[in-house]
Amino acid sequence: MNNQDELEMAGYYDSFSAVPRYIRMYYGQTPLAHGTCLFVMSVDGPVLITNRHNFTGRNNITDEPLHKELAIPDHAVVTMHGPHEVHYHIDLADHENPRAPAWTEHPTLGDKADIVALPVKEMTNIVGESNSVSLKNDWYRWNIGSELYVIGYPYGQIGGPFPIWSKGSIASEPDIDVSGLPVFVIDCKSRPGQSGSPVFAHFRVGAVVEYEGRTFQAKKPMNYFVGVYSGRLRSDSDLGLVWKRRCIEQLVDRAIAHGTQHRTELRRHRFSATPYKEFSLDRYIRKDVDKVE
Fold this sequence. Notes:
Elements: E1 21-27, E2 30-42, E3 45-50, H1 52-56, E4 75-80, E5 85-91, E6 116-119, E7 147-152, E8 164-170, E9 183-188, E10 198-203, E11 208-211, E12 214-217, E13 222-232, E14 239-244, H2 245-258, E15 263-269, H3 281-292
Antiparallel strand pairs: 1-2, 1-4, 2-3, 3-6, 4-5, 5-15, 7-8, 7-10, 8-9, 9-14, 10-13, 11-12, 13-14
């Protein structure tokens, strides 16, 4: 086996580690930000889901640019892992109609919802049931304090091809919408790069699961998609927002019905766990030590 061309995997990994995808935003050749996205499998093929602020480059509440030099992304790159690393370059600008977004927004909330969708039927050959989310079988009933996982890419690809699982818990009443929006609050030590991450409830073998008013004991590990994470309420807080599953369902339905104006280009690269040296353990550890001193 050629180690440069093949991805050799030893041991077991959770199937849901294959769901989140690393995404980077650029203006021209200049990298602006990085985050996380996922794919929902619909009747019309895969649909990419991420936070609206990832694509707009603006705070979704204040509309202020997020980049220190006020740059706004004009394209994004989604990394798909396998024996080779595959990059899908997504044009975020419709050059014939600059005012029209290249993505689909929520049918009733519009730009108030920090989630967007992008049908990517051309990615059907690489996105399937095993590395996407299905919105079928809405069987889970969660409660305040329930344990959840935000699965994404804090600080970039620090886990190589696989994302990082950050554990948290539901901090607001899940059946109550916060500020009139279909979101709930999660208490989780998330970090930059996890915006757009899928949020899951993870049931281990033996866990008690409620379904249709009855309780069952899980005979195998089970995962349930709860929603999409969109960042912390404040930089000095561990409280963040999760857009609820039903909101994602409505968004995907609209995306399928209306389509988008985006342009996608496929480029292949040899597999690399940390492209462009975006993450260095030594660099981050030294920063932490400096802060303590």
